[in-house]
């Protein structure tokens, strides 16, 4: 039986006691301490969900009321939705599972679904920094209503870049 690969040892995650190697990964920032309960919940789900028996865990982000998990593997949308639903019930907060490795636009499409992305532009600012502008059709504004700032913060954290969402 194949299992998802994690950056920390399974025994360390399940027990909550980190070996020196795993402790070093947490202290260096390679793995955030907030990711450990998410990894533990995913490991527990592997026993029940056959969908979770392949692939790699990449990263997760805990935004308080919502968790975003990025995995790498060969899952379809239905499997990702099933994993997200089970993870939500385990963690007691909303969860979204995204696939990594298909580019920035695909990652954003998964995050902002069902809104459509018209394009992504890079804007270079006078101070030398850059800002990504995500263009979404006006008709899809209803999908993000009241959540624009939340999604902007999610994308900025995940990509490490300043993001602006515009509606055309």
From TrEMBL:
Keywords: Elongation factor, Protein biosynthesis
Domain of life according to the entry: Archaea
Keyword Protein biosynthesis: yes
One MF annotation (Gene Ontology) recorded for this entry: translation elongation factor activity
Protein name per its UniProtKB record: Transcription elongation factor NusA-like protein
């Amino acid at each position: 039986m194949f299992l998802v690969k994690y950056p920390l040892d399974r025994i360390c995650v399940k027990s909550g006691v980190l070996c020196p190697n795993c402790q070093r990964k947490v202290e260096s920032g390679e793995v955030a301490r907030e990711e450990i309960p998410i990894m533990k919940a995913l490991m527990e789900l592997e026993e029940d969900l056959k969908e979770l028996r392949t692939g790699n865990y990449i990263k997760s982000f805990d935004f308080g009321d919502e968790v975003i998990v990025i995995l790498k593997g060969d899952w379809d949308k239905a499997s990702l939705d099933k994993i997200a639903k089970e993870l939500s019930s385990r963690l007691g907060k909303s969860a979204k599972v995204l696939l990594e490795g298909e580019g920035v636009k695909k990652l954003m499409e998964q995050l902002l679904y069902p809104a459509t992305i018209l394009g992504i532009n890079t804007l270079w600012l006078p101070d030398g920094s850059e800002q990504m502008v995500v263009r979404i059709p006006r008709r899809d504004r209803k999908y993000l209503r009241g959540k624009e700032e939340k999604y902007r913060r999610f994308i900025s954290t995940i990509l490490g870049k300043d993001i602006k969402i515009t509606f055309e």
